[in-house]
Amino acid sequence: MKSENQRLTLWELNRLVREAIEYEMPHEYWVEAELSECRESRGHCYMELIQKEAGNATPVAKASAKCWASRWMVVRTYFERTTGQRLSAGMKVLLKVYAQFHEAYGFSWIVTDIDPTYTLGDMARKRQEIIRQLKEEGVFDLQKELRLPLFCQRIAVISSETAAGYGDFCKQLADNTYGLKFRTQLFPAIMQGEGVEQSIIAALNRIYSDLPSFDCVVIIRGGGATSDMSGFDTLLLAENVANFPLPVITGIGHDRDESILDMVSHQRVKTPTAAAALLIDHLKRVIDTLDEAQARIARLSQQKILVLKAQLGTIAEIMPRLFSTVKTRQEAKLDALYSRLCQQTERRLLTEKHRLQLIGEKAKSLDPTLLLQRGYSITLKNGKAVRKASELKPGDLIETRLAQGKIKAEVVKSEK
Fold it and tell me: I want to staple 118 with a disulfide (CB 3.0 to 4.6 A). Which of 94, 258, 318, 369 is the partner?
């Protein structure tokens, strides 16, 4: 058993630990770590720090850290102004800390400073890795290959319903000085903090399910903290936007640097009102081009009409002279043709008359009555001339024609 003077109360033991730590670790230290949790409460910031080995998600070291309100306001403002981001889980940070052990609350590292350039370097490495992967996949410039439709008036808007930027965007479109008409449909999404990635992707999926109803997509953000932009620098969101079949315009209000979402979008502008101005200017240019084309067509048509009228006037003047010349030429041709036809007809008539005379003389020489007058006779059977005795048989009635008169007889016998 220990004697009573060797016993320590818990407070006494913790006090010894506190004194030992304060004696052995009186300095401040710069420490590299990853934030697994970062939250504010009553103006103070409470952090959970971890360290992981490369290729292993299991932490090899853990610790709690605190930044008291008086210091946190300065540190946070400097960090957010430099990086454009809020401290959040998953970030790698370089913190200046000192050890503190409290008898009632235990051990904690107290944060007195943070080096934003270290976090920027880590963020830049992550961004470059995402950009490299998107380029290797061949999707980094896909949106740039799309073209805004000529009449881009049906706009799918991804934004927070209560964001001031969404109202500014709609007002800018509705009150444009040219009286151009646009139709917008809101697809609400979380635009800051956790859940940005999945919320925007879900909105894109809803738009995709009704794709023929829209000409383009506008992702806008206004009224939120300009330092909370980490949700727009993710690989999954960039892949979804890059592969989307409609042009995607971003106006997420981040002036200093482009997010990866901006890089893969079809066009990037700084603010929601700038996105509205882009759509208005695009449609105005199309209408101006059509008006110019219409005026040019009207001007060219008028010029063509004037030229044709002049040509018709010239033709009207020379037509009578041309007609007279053509008429004279054609009449001469007709006269020459008539003369040739008459000569040819006369020659043809003479030729045919001579041929008919020859035919008549030949026909006269073949007249059977002339033969009969010379003492020849013609024997007929049934009105047809008999040329061979074999054509007759006994009992046939025949008729013999002479120069004068006819003889009818009956065949008694025929010899070949």
Answer: 94
